[in-house]
């Protein structure tokens, strides 16, 4: 079973209950050693205040969510996107985040050109990467479930993310999220292939039935993913970073008291990760 | 653009509007040359009556839906499943269906062992195949979208389905459905690899947003799939069979008059396939 000393909670897990300041305080008080931070919540809190609080509470920032959303309709939009991504790099650097999570983006408005969107993602990552390297921030490409290919992320398998890493070189790796990848028949081989390029490891569960494509993720143990098996594969690569619980759950966990959610995450982390 | 002379409609597209007898009559009257039949509707109609009506109306049966659902909790359930699958083979033979669609099945109740379910699928297909060969019925393994891996189908990529075909030998091929496969970064290469093993080609569209994992498929042209591009790849294999429209749409197309749905299918087939 997983060691609670390696646990992080992605603040989206209690996003309806907690501001960033509240999340930092609540996770730290519960003895959770890590937090992953979202930029919209960071903007509300202010970067300096967030840095101060994270330090004061001794939390490790397992990731900043998120850069990416690269495909765009024109050059101006691409430039605006690059600027925003550089800003995210700066924030990740100041926070000392373990990585900057990249959710690549889907089809531009009105487009059906998925291969074209994928080329834009590659080129935009290539344009961002020197800036990230200079800032000492590693980019974690997170393949998202194929059901998000149209509107959220056209990088949909670990294999595809690793091909991108191969092409882009140093400074970029992957985020492995069991929710997005558990179904993949070649997952074990691709996790092995990833090796030391695994920068983040996210857990939650796939519910049967799933009632919403985005906001019906399950607590570990409530679904059908063999999480310990995937964790074993990730462990075998030598990954020893934080393991992050990330649950979007509009109708269940977001409606419960924050303390109950955190406590349940810890119990299930112990039992089902 | 696709030729209406190659069009088939999967009767699920008007399943709320039509019995099988009504669907056969309505599709034929509209000049649609093909139909794909579901076994629950076939049971209501009766096999002999269905065969007579299909012949009288001169329809080609592009597929029988469906065999499969192989993973099971114990030997008795596996045997019951095999018996049901043999019955499906018999029905497909009598109907003269172009193929028997196989939706392999997901995890058995209570299981999280996805690799195990996949082995059950392989072994069950192996057990069914001699019977199907003897009946002259080809089995079309349909990879389903990864979002169905838990509860419906653990075969989730064309690559995986073709690996199964390689292992099983003659008498088995694949059904290519754009809804399930459009996101796959290696789809073009896998369609080429499939070659003459493509036994069915299904079209509909992926809506953004999609509001239900099962019953919110779109009419061709209403979503983000580049259907003509995928059709071109399928054409390039030499596939010259029927192209089947299959739309599950509880809140939209299932609520409209059957005639309107059929007419729209034809218009969009001409324009968006």
Overview of the structural elements:
Chain A has 273 residues and is of the alpha/beta class. The first copy, chain A, has one domain: Alpha-Beta Barrel (TIM Barrel), CATH 3.20.20. Chain A has ten helices and eight strands. Chain A has helices at residues 20-29, 39-45, 47-56, 75-95, 114-135, 158-168, 178-181, 187-194, 227-236, 258-272; strands spanning 7-10, 34-38, 60-68, 100-103, 139-141, 172-177, 198-203, 243-245. In chain A, strands 1-2-3-4-5-6-7-8 form an eight-stranded parallel barrel, surrounded by seven helices. In chain A, α1 runs parallel beside α3 and α4 packs parallel to α5 (114-135). Chain A is globular. Chain A starts with 6 loop residues before the first strand and ends with a helix. Chain A binds chain B through residues 107, 111-114, 118, 145-147, 149-151, 154, 156-157, 159-160, 182-185, 206, 208-210, 213, 223-226, and chain B through 107, 111-114, 118, 145-147, 149-151, 154, 156-157, 159-160, 182-185, 206, 208-210, 213, 223-226.
């Amino acid at each position: 079973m997983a060691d609670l000393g390696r646990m992080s909670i992605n603040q989206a897990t209690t996003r309806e209950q907690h501001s960033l300041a509240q999340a930092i305080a609540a996770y730290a008080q519960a003895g959770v050693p890590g937090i992953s931070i979202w930029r919209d919540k960071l903007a509300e809190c202010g970067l300096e205040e967030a840095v101060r609080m994270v330090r004061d509470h001794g939390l490790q920032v397992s990731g900043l969510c998120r850069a990416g959303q690269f495909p765009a309709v024109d050059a101006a939009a691409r430039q605006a996107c690059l600027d925003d991504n550089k800003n995210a790099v700066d924030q990740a650097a100041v926070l000392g985040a373990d990585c900057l999570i990249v959710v690549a983006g889907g089809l531009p408005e009105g487009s059906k050109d998925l291969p074209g969107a994928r080329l834009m993602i590659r080129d935009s990552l290539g344009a961002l990467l020197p800036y990230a390297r200079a800032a000492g921030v590693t980019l974690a490409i997170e393949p998202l479930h194929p059901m998000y290919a149209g509107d959220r992320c056209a990088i949909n398998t670990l294999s595809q993310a690793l091909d991108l890493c191969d092409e882009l070189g140093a400074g970029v790796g992957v985020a492995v999220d069991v929710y997005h990848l558990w179904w993949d028949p070649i997952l074990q081989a691709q996790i092995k292939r990833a090796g030391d390029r695994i920068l983040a490891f996210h857990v939650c569960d796939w519910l049967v039935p799933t009632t919403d494509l985005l906001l019906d993720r399950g607590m570990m143990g409530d679904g059908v993913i063999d999480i310990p098996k995937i964790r074993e594969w990730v462990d075998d690569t030598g990954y020893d970073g934080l393991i992050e619980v990330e649950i979007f759950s509009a109708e269940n966990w977001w409606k419960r008291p924050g303390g109950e959610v955190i406590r349940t995450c810890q119990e299930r982390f112990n039992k089902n990760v």
